[in-house]
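DM from R.C. (forwarded with permission)

"hey, sorry to bug you on a friday — could you get me a structure for this? deadline for the figure draft is monday and I only need the backbone to look sensible"
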Amino acid sequence: MTTTTAPTRFGLSRTIRLGVRRIGFELRQYFRAGDQVFFTFLFPTVMYLIFATIFTGDIGGGPDTISMATYYLPGLIAGGIFLSGVQGLSIEIAVEKSDGTLKRLGSTPISPATYFIGKIGEVFVTAILQIALLLVVAVVLYRVELPTEPEAWIRFAWVFVLGLLTCALLGVALSSVPRSGKTASAVVIPVVLLLQFISGVYIAFTSLPEWLQNVASVFPLKWIAQGMRAAILPDSFKAVEPGGEWALGMVAIVLGVWLVVGIVLSRATFRWIRRDG
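My reply, with the result:
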C-alpha cells in the first residue's frame, strides 16, 4: 500500500498490539453512527422480519419440510456478511479519507496494517453480533430449528470467516472509487443492493434467468449464500441448486480467488490521502 512517509514505524508485535487496541476505538465510532447501525447492522434483521412475516407456509416435502422463515435465513445471513464487509467498510473508509482522518493518521507512526487490523476486527465483531441477533430473532419469533450436526456448524464457520474476510478486503478496495465521503453511499449502496437481488439473498437463485445466474456467479455473494444454505438447510435442498450439489469446493475456490483479488486491489489502491488530494 502506498502511504505518506511517517517519522517512525513500529515493529510487527507492536503493530499487531496497536491494531487490536484500535478495534475498541473503531467499534465505538461504529455504534455512534446511527445511520450506519441501521443500514448495515440492523438492516438484515429488518429485512428478515419483513420476508418471514409476509411469506409464510412451508417448503419442501416429507421430513425435510421447512418453514419459509428457515428458507430465507441463510440468504439474509449472507447478505449481512456482504453488508458488513463491502458496504460498511467501503463507506467508512471513503468518509475518513474525505474528512481528513486518514491524512492525519498518515502523519503519525501508525501503519496501514495497524489501521486495517482495527477495521477488520470491527467488521468481524459487528458481523458476529449482527448474525447472532438474526439467529435469535429466527429462533424466538419464528421457531426456526437450527442445525444440530457439528458438520453443519463447521461449514457455517469457514464460510463465514472466508466470506467476511473476502468482503472486508473488497470493501477496502471499493473505498477508493467514491470521489468524496458525501458520494460514497450513492456509489456503494446501489451496487450492493443489485448484487443482493441477483445472488439468492432475497429471491431464490434458481428462479432467476440463466444469464443472470451466470453474472451473479462471477461475484462472491452468490457463493457465500450457497455456502450458508449448505450449512442451514436440509441436505435434500441441494437438488435445486445449479448442478444439483452444494459445490462447497467451488465455494471455497471462488471465495479464495476473490480474497486474493481483494488483497491485490486493496494494496494497490489504498492511500492515506486521495491522489488528487
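R.C.: lifesaver. The chain has a mean pLDDT of 90.
me: no worries. Strands lie at 58-59, 66-67.
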